[in-house]
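Slide 14.
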Amino acid sequence: MDFDYARAEILTPEGLGKRLGLSRRWVIIHSRPDAVDPIPHLKLGRVPRYAWGSPELSAWLQRRQR
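Slide 15: predicted structure.
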């Protein structure tokens, strides 16, 4: 089954940071294209947005599990 981005919970950097226990600044810095493994995001306006539960974001989180 494909992920439905139209129904996804879209988070701001503040929202993602709150979910992950990180600061807004950390989220934005790690979303930049020059980051080692940037956080997958959608560019809507000037601020990046994050599709909570998307396969890309889930894979990014999986890569960080220790």
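Speaker note: The two ends are 28 Å apart (CA to CA).
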